[in-house]
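task queued by scheduler; priority normal; single chain, no ligands, no partner chains; default sampling; output format set to structure tokens
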Amino acid sequence: MKKLLALALAAVMVFALVACGGSGSTGGQTAPSAPASSDTPSAPAASGDITVNDSDPNVTIMIAHSSGEDTVLNRACLKYKELAEAYSNGKITVDVYPNGTLISVAEMNEAIKDGSVQMIVGSPGGMMSDAIGILELPNLVNSIEQAHEVMQPGTDFRNLLNSVFEDVGVRLQGIEPCDFRMLTSNRPVNSYEELAGLRIRLMDSPVPMAYWKQWGANPGPLAWSEVYMALQQNMFEAQENPYDSIIASNLQEVQKYLIQTNHVMFYTALMMNKAFYDSQPDNYKAILDKVAEEVCAYTYQDAQDSSAANRQKLEDAGMTYIALTEDDYAKMRANATDADSIVKSAIGDEQFSKMMAALGF
């Protein structure tokens, strides 16, 4: 995979020399407002107190993610591209690869750790490491607002989370909630008890596999690209994702019910290979930090603006909305001990207790 990614990077660098904008289906996405290379001035430029000079190196950042193009997550990536290229005077070039077009979801988690790609964006979890699987534990937060507060730089939970990422060679540049992962199904689920026996497609990640099994469901892994067909052919009767991912893949065409399980928050996490970040000159580090801060603010607002509208789109498309109760959520949290054990064994009882305490447990 490393050889293939090296070839891909070489191709991107060559293409950048001969093309004026972003590439088509075989290359990175282009943010419309990003500066064109022909506009780069010969004199030093600055963003605030950050100065960029002609002598500074040219750097390419490939961002890989698995979400669709019309999603909060992809818009965050395009905003990152726009700002990084503008603030660096075009010295930093960012190419965005959505829909798993560069590498698969499973490969992304290894690629970001070993530096095969510079950056991935998505909702992190146990596929990266069992310790980061704490973000996949169910019913830890009650709202987007609460998730936003606990993820802010400087909070106890964020400080602990940063160290967990650094342990696997990743710098968590920023993280913001997008929306809860919701259950969609072809049979109604009106309570926690009715999760029993549900044939649900999940990512191949140990933490969600553990709690869905403990809840009595019948989970199984499947590549995202195959989910639509599997639901259509009744290989699975359910899946779970945030609203915009459901819409982007047209799952409303093959699913009847939208169940508000609110079991896990889907995050837009900006994850950069730590060695790559550490190798950048100080002015580039300052740019990347500034960009991450602004992208997080943009993403949080975008997520809030999109959530209600996306739910309405799904209902307008014919899906029936079912709300679970606080009692159901409490049962889901209480019956996730198998998943808790996976994370606890990865980070230790003391660290697990600190992180759960920072979340209010």
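post-processing summary
- Residues 282-316 form the longest helix (35 residues).
- DSSP finds 13 helices and eleven strands in the chain.
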